[in-house]
Design brief:
By secondary structure, the chain is an alpha+beta fold. The protein has 21 helices and 13 strands. A hairpin with a 6-residue loop joins strand 3 and strand 4. The longest helix has 17 residues. Bound molecules: adenosine-5'-triphosphate and magnesium ion. The site of magnesium ion (MG) has 3 residues, from loops. The site of adenosine-5'-triphosphate (ATP) has 11 residues, from helix 7.
């Protein structure tokens, strides 16, 4: 067994020493079998959350009622979750009650997909009761147990299945795909917040194009905010979102490719419950994708929006990123005489003193013409030079 598992072994040992079972479970076990980089490591145990808290010095209660306690070991956080079965489901959303149990097997059976339902013991032995290993070998995504029942319990699992397909390039089993087609409307009952988390991971997946194809072939997309209304055009379906970085770029590309006016773009992103900050960044990026750049545009956009929108433009037309072109754009931005309004050598106050005039709309207008002249290198960004320039402008106006 390798890092990062070895680092977490003392947690398993502590639980064992106190008579409890403890295993690595879920995504980390899947990723080790896939030889992918392992993300967060989750641990499952028959110790109750209270017992887990009492055994470790540093713990955080992140949902003890659902069985989860975070244990911090040597600076790293691990989710330690008590074996549980989820019986009654409420409104196709969340289990109404969680029952803590002592059987690892039952805990594995309640998990969503076979590839996510394996455990690994302290010696690196894989415990696979659901055919997860075989599905990994055959690149298959399917639910643990009857897909129709599992989607009835929690319809988010449909989105999760497509999200993993997007990340791994696997395909859905026939039964799982059929159940999705039949019961896709159940996804309509799931909160947008939960769907957004999966949608963002789906868009960033290496095989997003296939995943969007599945959203369409199963009609799941009709249950996602705004997509039925606006449709999914060819460009939007085939765009390589995975080559982008932040979510602001991903959403920026998404709405740019939908080709919406600003009002519709804002309302779509609001429907997806994006934070105001993310929404504004995404809208701004989307608006600059097709722009013809000059000093003023670069100044308005700012460096991040400039580079993000340029990347999207390259991917839209050429499907790859030209880093040398980004480098050139970055140099051009660095060469701007001012990068934000605060960099201007005069402020509104200076203008008021200089003009001996009260504040008013004229300040913004005058600052704007100073800014333009400085950006176009017609004026040096120095207080005296700016005063002289304004004087000269006044003279010219008087003479005209
Ligand atoms: P990632 O690497 O993206 O975090 P993950 O498999 O760890 O993938 P999580 O959302 O962190 O995914 O969930 C951890 C584990 O919990 C899953 O591997 C799965 O076993 C189980 N799980 C998560 N969501 C559900 C669900 N809706 N229904 C059943 N089991 C679930
Ligand atoms: Mg995880």
């Amino acid at each position: 067994m390798n890092e990062p598992f070895t680092h977490a072994i003392p947690i398993l040992h502590t639980l064992h020493e106190h008579g409890y079972q403890a295993y690595f479970v879920g995504g980390a076990v899947r990723d080790v079998l896939l030889e992918r980089e392992v993300g967060d490591i989750d641990i499952a145990t028959d110790a109750t959350p209270d017992a887990v808290e009492s055994l470790f010095d540093k713990t955080i209660d992140v949902g003890k009622e659902h069985g989860t306690v975070i244990v911090i070991h040597d600076g790293v956080s691990y989710e330690v979750t008590t074996f549980r079965s989820e019986s009654a489901y409420e409104d196709f959303r969340r289990p109404k009650e969680v029952q803590f149990i002592s059987s690892l097997e039952e805990d594995l059976f309640r998990r969503d997909l076979t590839i996510n339902a394996m455990a690994m013991d302290v010696n690196g032995e894989i415990i696979d009761r659901v055919g997860g290993k075989q599905d990994i070998q055959q690149n298959i995504i399917q639910t643990v147990g009857d897909p129709a029942c599992r989607f009835q319990e929690d319809a988010l699992r449909m989105m999760r299945a497509v999200r993993f397909l997007s990340q791994l390039g696997f395909h859905l089993s026939v039964d799982t795909a059929n159940a999705m087609k039949k019961d896709k409307h159940l996804l309509g009952k799931i909160s947008v917040e939960r769907k957004k988390i999966e949608m963002e991971k789906l868009l960033k997946g290496r095989y997003c194009e296939q995943a969007i194809g599945v959203l369409v072939s199963t009609n799941l997309y009709e249950e996602l905010p705004g997509l039925q209304k606006h449709g999914l055009n060819e460009q939007l379906r085939t765009f390589p979102y995975y080559l982008l970085d932040g979510l602001e770029e991903v959403w920026g590309a998404f709405i740019h490719l939908l080709d919406l006016d600003e009002t519709s773009a804002v309302s779509l992103l609001k429907e997806w419950r994006l934070s105001t900050k993310l929404l504004k960044e995404a809208i701004k990026i989307s608006e600059y994708v097709d722009c013809e750049w000059d000093a003023e545009k670069m100044f308005e956009a700012g460096e991040h929006v400039l580079l993000s929108s340029l990347k999207i433009k390259q991917l839209k037309h050429e499907r790859r990123i030209f880093f040398d072109e980004l480098e050139v754009a970055k140099h051009s931005f660095d060469a701007l005489p001012i990068k934000k309004l605060k960099d201007l050598a005069v402020s509104g106050k200076d203008l008021m003193a200089f003009r001996q005039k009260k504040s008013g709309k004229w300040i913004a207008e005058e600052l704007d013409s100073v800014k333009k002249a400085v950006l176009q290198h017609r004026l040096e960004n120095r207080k005296e030079a700016i005063e002289e320039w304004l004087n000269a402008c006044d003279q010219r106006l008087e003479n005209d």
